[in-house]
Amino acid sequence: MTKALLEVDNLSVGYRTASGIQMAVDDVSFRVDRGGSLGLVGESGCGKTTIGMALMGLLASNATIVSGQVRFEGEDLTAVSDQRMRQIRWRRIAMIFQAAMNALNPVHRVQDQIAEAIITHEPELSSHAVAHRARSLFELVKIPADRLQGYPHQFSGGMRQRVIIAMALACNPSLIIADEPTTALDVIVQNQILNAIGTFQKEMNIGMIFISHDLAVVADVCTHIGVMHAGSLVEYGTRQEVLDCPGHPYTRMLVGSLLTLSDEPADLSGLVCPAGSNGPVAAAGCPVQAMCPSSTAACQRGQAQWVELSPTHRVRCQQAGEELFR
Ligand SMILES: Nc1ncnc2c1ncn2[C@@H]1O[C@H](COP(=O)(O)OP(=O)(O)OP(=O)(O)O)[C@@H](O)[C@H]1O
């Protein structure tokens, strides 16, 4: 197996609240290879953004990494100093935030904002080199270079999101975290952005974590898929494995809801998430037991263990090997 670009091992993150530490991410492990892409998929509140922020060293002040390691290019990011993390953030790991297109400064030309992103991290570059880099980034995200002189309000939502992607790529990172980068866009523009993301990711051979609540979107751009529920990763595998042979009842629900034109709608009646079942980590038992029709008393008691379905495909469900799920 090749050396991973990023290895996350048993990461648990909690938030200090008035009622004590509330766990938002529980014992999550995955890897991302150079040029590989992992889609983290799950409903709102299941901990996806918290993972992204932990990797960027940008967790909220009331957050705490309770346990785990994040090895990136040979360094454990949970143990590096703030100063070292500032050198890694944006230069080596960049993030595209949810609805970031609204964060562009309306009073500055787009060119100046991209230039600032480059100069902040590479002050040694000449103005000629910075302008050249800005033009190539625009080319990469498919915006004509003559638009660089424009102001954000002269750009459509899709174009502004491309500008944000260009800014995230400004320092040539080796890992990019894209958190719901297309959620606020209409379907056509969403497709164009996904194509742009797929292109730069392959052309620049960078690793990517793509965060989304939408399995169809993740399936479009990612080589690997991690399914999350209530702070836990419940299934992890290659795109093919997860889509063709989903082993976890929750993944089956997600895959069953992916319709093609010729499909009959899947019967999902037994797998409805009760309100509040996807919040922070449950105190005990399998995180999915509240909505799983196959849940047993054992599922309510003990945390589900991982079952390996193949060297690259694992499922966190104590019944994954049972006839029930075949
Ligand atoms: N600063 C905070 N203090 C306390 N709890 C928080 C804080 N930030 C997030 N949480 C809680 O942590 C859990 C995970 O949130 P997170 O934003 O990581 O989920 P998510 O899957 O990214 O959801 P979304 O897609 O809606 O952003 C949620 O229950 C959320 O309410």
Automatic annotation (TrEMBL):
One of its GO terms (biological process) is peptide transport. Residues 6-255 form the ABC transporter domain. It holds the Pfam family oligo_HPY. GO terms for molecular function: ATP binding; ATP hydrolysis activity. InterPro entries: AAA+_ATPase (IPR003593), ABC_Ni/Peptide_Import (IPR050388), ABC_transporter-like_ATP-bd (IPR003439), ABC_transporter-like_CS (IPR017871), Oligopep_ABC_C (IPR013563), P-loop_NTPase (IPR027417). GO terms for cellular component: plasma membrane. It comes from the Bacteria. It is a peripheral membrane protein. It is found in: Cell inner membrane. Keywords: ATP-binding, Cell membrane, Membrane, Nucleotide-binding, Transport. NCBIfam families: oligo_HPY. Belongs to the ABC transporter superfamily. This is ABC transporter ATP-binding protein. The lineage of its organism: Bacteria, Pseudomonadati, Thermodesulfobacteriota, Desulfobacteria, Desulfobacterales.
